[in-house]
Design a protein that fits this description.
The structure is a single chain. With 574 residues, the protein is mainly α. It has four domains: 4-44; 52-129, no CATH class; 132-439, no CATH class; 453-565, no CATH class. The protein has helices spanning 4-17, 20-44, 52-65, 77-87, 103-112, 129-156, 159-170, 173-179, 185-207, 211-231, 235-249, 253-279, 298-302, 315-328, 330-333, 338-346, 354-376, 389-410, 416-439, 453-460, 474-481, 492-500, 515-518, 522-527, 535-538, and strands at 71-72, 74-75, 95-96, 468-471, 485-487, 508-513, 551-555, 561-565. It has a six-stranded mixed β-sheet, sandwiched between helices. A two-stranded antiparallel sheet has the order 1-3. The longest helix is centred in the N-terminal third of the chain and has 28 residues, at 129-156.
């Protein structure tokens, strides 16, 4: 006879090994691991926003939260040209933003509004509270996206592959870096994953011959693709792939395709109309980003008050280089995730479920069109506002993992430890970039170079209310300094025209140069590149006698910043 206490212990062990308690423990460990990674990336690895687009959209979000409308403190000379070309006058009051699309700034406004009392920076704030709030929102969207992904993958394959796929997604360093970047990719990922789940449900309705339900679901998916475009305009290319897929498979084709197109247009068109009314171009200033790499960098394009329209003729030659660059760096764009890369090999395999195979080709169509869009608006690095490969990565991981498991099963090695070791290798290789990033992260809590948030804020306080500051990093001054800042014009003559004629409502009283322009190869990018006109100012050898700002001081951050002004603003006065 087994003692009562021993019997209870045995029952408890049995529940852990094969019973329901095992699943509870595993799920608890999974949730704890995700929470730990989120805390690690937000509170330990995060050093503040380090992307121009993220800071630009953050300061617009703060303007919206302050009930100042969709306005900006980041002033681009090309925007001045576009306003003057449209109505021969600049808008009165705050400058409307015509570069960004609205959804991510609106999300930022929702996040920033509750912390309005803490908007002003303090000298001790190495990481701005606004940065933390936006990064936390990005992490929340990332986790919510994976939550939806679980149900989608479970419907495509089974619960085990769904759990493992979500685990691999959470072990991908690049996705976590995007989640804390402040860029719109996590918002797009959330909408895209939801759209794929709805698309799968629409495909099920099509198989069951429930046309009304199918059309309703397709319309809902089209709404999400429209919202994706309002978050990141390059997502319109993904919609084209979705539209082709709808026309190709759903019946009736004309009704399904036209419904999707008109619903998408109804979501996107109000913003296009707004842009047209404000500046005369439905796409606003963002269309000129296509000239990045043809007529110099995007900064060179945005810093001029007379765009080179002939440069549009060079875009065709840029497309080939853009496609080649994407395919050469595809593994890095997919976060060096082994299962994500295996997706492309899974195209050679036929899975058991018909809809699983079919949805995969819809994803391929959308990805191909996204790659075409990115060829025109090329991502400059792995974490870039134009990098759309990242939003396909979770679904790629699911298909790639399922394919790798199929390959293993075909070997018919009925030895559980070997199978577990095989899966462990997949997880280990995919998690290597995360381990390397976390273990080799640079010390310190600031994103230097070129950003030191409290110092940028301090320099901004040297300016009086209503005075205009010019800089090579106006997005950071707009966000951390909370004041209007002009992007460094292409030439000194344009700067003097803006200053003398008070085109922006007053003279330019400060010029703040940072490692954005100074920390570059001297000959190729300063003396002969985008900043050639300002080379002597960057090197601090300029003759200031005929320049409006005749005072300057180096700034004590590795002596890499310099501030020019119309008077001494930095010497303490009694």
């Amino acid at each position: 006879m087994i003692p009562e206490e021993d019997r209870k212990v045995q029952e408890f062990v049995h529940q852990i090994e094969v019973g329901g308690l095992k699943h509870v423990i595993l799920r608890t460990l999974f949730i704890a691991t995700v929470a730990g990674l989120a805390a690690l990336y937000l509170f330990v690895n995060f050093r503040g926003l380090d992307s121009e687009t993220a800071m630009d959209q953050a300061q617009i979000g703060r303007q919206i939260a302050a009930r100042a409308g969709f306005t900006t403190f980041y002033l681009r000379p090309l925007a001045v040209w576009q306003f003057l070309n449209h109505r021969e006058t600049l808008p009165q009051g705050l400058m409307p933003d015509i570069y960004n699309f609205p959804l991510n700034p609106l999300l930022n406004a929702v996040v920033l509004r509750p912390i309005k009392r803490w908007w002003p920076m303090q000298p001790t704030d190495t990481v701005y509270i606004g940065d933390m709030a936006i990064a936390a929102a990005g992490i929340a969207l990332f986790i919510a996206s994976v939550f939806i992904l679980f149900f989608l993958v479970r419907a495509l394959f089974d619960a085990r592959i769904a759990w493992m796929s979500c685990g691999l997604v959470f072990l991908t360093d690049l996705l976590w870096r995007f989640s804390t970047s402040g860029l719109p990719q996590m918002l797009v990922l959330f909408l895209f994953t939801a759209a794929l789940w709805i698309l799968h449900r629409a495909m099920e309705a099509r198989e069951e011959d429930r046309t009304g339900r199918m059309l309703l679901l397709l319309a809902a998916a089209a709404v999400l693709f429209g919202l994706m475009t309002l978050a990141q305009p390059l997502c319109s290319w993904i919609f084209l792939g979705f539209l082709v897929f709808v026309f190709s498979w759903f019946q009736p084709r004309a009704v399904s395709g036209l419904l999707v197109f008109f619903v998408f247009a109804a979501v996107v068109s109000p913003w296009l109309v707004r842009n047209y009314l404000v500046c005369g171009n439905p796409l606003g200033l963002a269309i000129f980003s296509i000239l990045d790499g043809t007529a110099g960098s995007e900064h060179a394009v945005m810093s001029t008050m007379q765009p080179d329209m002939a440069a549009f003729g060079s875009v065709r030659g840029k497309l080939r280089g853009g496609l080649l660059d994407q395919f050469q760096n595809l593994f890095s764009f997919l976060g060096y995730n082994l299962a994500g890369a295996a997706f492309f090999f899974s195209l050679l395999h036929i899975f058991r479920r018909h809809l699983t195979n079919l949805l995969r080709w819809g994803v391929v169509l959308m990805w191909v069109f996204a790659a075409l869009g990115m060829a025109a608006f090329t991502p400059q690095k792995d974490v870039s506002h134009n990098q759309l490969h990242i939003i396909f990565l979770p679904i790629f991981i699911a298909y790639g993992l399922a394919f790798l498991i199929v390959l293993w099963n075909r070997m018919d090695l009925r030895f559980a430890p070997a199978r577990n070791a095989f899966l462990a290798v997949i997880f280990f290789v995919s998690a290597l970039p995360m381990a390397v990033n976390l273990l080799t992260a640079a010390p310190g809590r600031v994103a230097w170079p070129p950003y030191v948030a409290p110092f940028i804020h301090e320099v901004s306080t040297w300016m009086e209310p209503g005075e205009l500051l010019c800089s090579d990093m106006p997005w950071a001054i707009a966000w951390y300094g909370g004041r209007p800042s002009l992007l460094l014009p292409a030439t000194i003559e344009q700067f003097i025209d803006i200053h003398d004629y008070k085109i922006l409502g007053g003279p330019v009283n400060g010029l703040y140069l940072t490692p954005v322009s100074g920390n570059r190869p001297f000959l190729s990018q300063i003396a002969k590149g985008d900043y050639a006109a300002w080379a002597t100012f960057i090197m601090r050898t300029a003759d200031l006698n005929r320049f409006p700002l005749q005072y300057f001081t180096p700034l004590p951050i590795d002596n890499e910043c310099v501030f020019y002004s119309n008077r001494d603003r930095w010497t303490p006065r009694d």
